[in-house]
Specification:
Helix content is about 75%, strand content about 5%. Helix 6 runs antiparallel to helix 7 and helix 7 packs antiparallel against helix 8. The longest helix is centred in the last third of the chain and has 32 residues. It is mostly helical. It is flat, with a radius of gyration of 19 Å. A two-stranded antiparallel sheet has the order 1-2.
Length: about 250
């Protein structure tokens, strides 16, 4: 759904190949995420790497082939190709890291227990960081972060979000029974994850600003669209998943 909404932000409906690319790549996204879930459940890292590299190649090939069979539109064809490939990576491949976190440390007799704690932390921590940044930015925000993309974001709010993320990480680390060294590494990882979540939010804001849209869609009344709810997680999930491996927490 987030991928479909992203394509809508490109404002290319009616461009050559738009309908075919939209539905074929959406179906491919569902198959890919289902395959990632099965491979992660089996902890087959080799197959997972092959799956990741293959899906990107397949997306590029399918998008190219579909556009070859439609009349060339100087701007629409180019934007359709690069927008589709980038949108698939941004909304589908990056979000697949949520599944990798979910199945982290899962065993055959106790599926997903360790990963459930970390996925819950990622979801809650990201939202707390967003709220902390919004509150601090609203109260004392003076220095605009990137005003031409998101006029409301400030450096003070960014710092406030990081502080909240570190506090949540500190409390969670001891709740999870980490040592002092592990807790410090975990806090550094969570700070990087919070920073990445801001990048994910700004990425969507860039495309919304380009298309003149306030929300990615009206699918969720009062909350915008699915992409509005997962934009931060799309960028935060890979940083968090890869970081857990770097600090010694692996499947």
């Amino acid at each position: 759904l987030a991928f479909v909404e992203f394509l809508g932000l490109l404002k290319l409906k009616g461009s050559p190949g738009w309908g075919a690319i939209r539905w074929i790549l959406t179906g491919l996204a569902a198959c890919y995420l289902g395959s990632v879930a099965m491979v992660c459940a089996k902890h087959d890292s080799g197959m997972l790497q092959l799956l990741d590299s293959s899906i990107l190649a397949v997306v590029v090939i399918i998008t190219t082939v579909l556009l070859l069979f439609h009349p060339v539109n100087e701007r629409g064809t180019k934007d359709m190709f690069f927008g589709s490939v980038f949108g698939f990576v941004y909304t589908v491949i990056l979000s697949s890291f949520l599944l990798r976190v979910l199945y982290l440390g899962a065993g055959d007799n106790d599926p997903g227990v360790a990963g459930q704690y970390y996925i819950l932390f990622l979801l809650v921590g990201t939202k707390f960081s967003d709220m902390g940044g919004y509150i601090v930015g609203s109260l004392i925000g003076r220095h605009k972060m990137i005003p031409h993309i998101s006029p409301g974001k400030t450096w003070e709010g960014f710092a406030g979000g990081l502080v909240v993320a570190l506090l949540v990480a500190w409390c969670s680390a001891f709740w999870l029974g980490m040592s002092m060294g592990e807790a410090i590494r975990f806090m550094v990882l969570c700070g990087a994850t919070a920073a990445a979540s801001v990048l994910g939010d700004l990425t969507e804001s860039l495309f919304k600003r380009r298309s003149g849209a306030k929300d990615s869609s009206s699918l969720l009344p009062g909350h915008g669209g699915v992409l509005d709810r997962v934009d931060s997680l799309c960028a935060a999930a890979p940083v968090f998943a890869l970081g857990l491996g770097l600090i010694g927490i692996t499947a």
